[in-house]
TrEMBL record:
<protein>
    <submittedName>
        <fullName>3-phenylpropionate dioxygenase</fullName>
    </submittedName>
</protein>
<keyword id="KW-0223">Dioxygenase</keyword>
<dbReference type="InterPro" id="IPR036922">
    <property type="entry name" value="Rieske_2Fe-2S_sf"/>
</dbReference>
<keyword id="KW-0411">Iron-sulfur</keyword>
<dbReference type="InterPro" id="IPR044043">
    <property type="entry name" value="VanA_C_cat"/>
</dbReference>
<dbReference type="Pfam" id="PF19112">
    <property type="entry name" value="VanA_C"/>
</dbReference>
<dbReference type="InterPro" id="IPR050584">
    <property type="entry name" value="Cholesterol_7-desaturase"/>
</dbReference>
<dbReference type="InterPro" id="IPR017941">
    <property type="entry name" value="Rieske_2Fe-2S"/>
</dbReference>
<keyword id="KW-0560">Oxidoreductase</keyword>
<keyword id="KW-0479">Metal-binding</keyword>
<keyword id="KW-0408">Iron</keyword>
<feature type="domain" description="Rieske">
    <location>
        <begin position="27"/>
        <end position="130"/>
    </location>
</feature>
<dbReference type="GO" id="GO:0051213">
    <property type="term" value="F:dioxygenase activity"/>
</dbReference>
<dbReference type="Pfam" id="PF00355">
    <property type="entry name" value="Rieske"/>
</dbReference>
<keyword id="KW-0001">2Fe-2S</keyword>
Amino acid sequence: MSTATANRAETEAQVEKILTEGLKDYWHAICPSHFVKDTPVSLRRLGRKLVLWRDADNKVHCLEDHCPHRGAPLSFGIPLGNKIACGYHGVEVSCDGTVVSVPGNPGCKLEGSRPTRAFHIQESAGAIFMYNSSENIDEPPPLVLPEQLTSGEYSAFLCYTEWRGGYRYVIDNVMDPMHGTYLHKQSHSMSVGARSAEFQLRDTDTGFIFEKAGQRDVNFDWSEWADTGLIWLRLEIPYPKTGGPGGNFGIIGCYTPISPDITAVFHWRVRKVEGWQRDAWRFLYKNRLEARHWTVLEQDRVVLEQMESDANQREHLYQHDVGVTRARRQLRKLATDQLNRGVL
């Protein structure tokens, strides 16, 4: 093997590692808010084991779940406001990663050092988002969510689940509107429209939209890829009148690697409704529509979990897959940029 070939192979392996673990210096949804209560919680996300806890003001803090003294899990410790005391030897670590106290050996060189990886947290739309910084930083960039999750004109429900398989297959699934016509053809909201289509790409300020040419507001007709320092996807599905008041039924998606073979799947179901219509739709959703939407998600889960890990290495793509390939290129470019910055 030539040196150039070996270097390309090494670069490809490094890019793949970045993509498998998840981008650094990006925001990621890591769990629903209700996962973190009164006691520390240990979660595996983004190639790390994390500990999260709440202080007296209900603010969530996050560190790598690793005591800098001997490596014991901090999640077995005791939260002390914005710091946590390791349950093994009592070492106290602040939420910024600084060791503030070593009770067994006061004044030792460990005190005052900042060896623990710390992560900034923000809660919004019923979820906890973490800035996956490549090093400890004092201030992260702002978390920018789509307006459907921040504007009072919309009402949203968070649907969270965990699927076997890599998160990139879930992204591929959302960027493939045509699968709705076939896999979900029995759904009350995806049973109409043409069974063949031509697609086009349209750039946006934050990414792109992949859409059927000549068909809109009929079926699952388009998907949006967006990068606002958080990668999120969006789609809309028209509702029949039996679906209640409001505009089209929208879905916002974020997908985070728990491990190479498990994905944290976040879907916010959103609808533009206000006043009494909001209350009517929320009641109808919880009492009638939610079960149907879980059925549709289950169809996706069954297919994706049965796909081999190398399925995307043995494909024969066609025009309907342009959105998938564009999303893959976007992710790969971001991973390559990260590698070029020397961040692994």
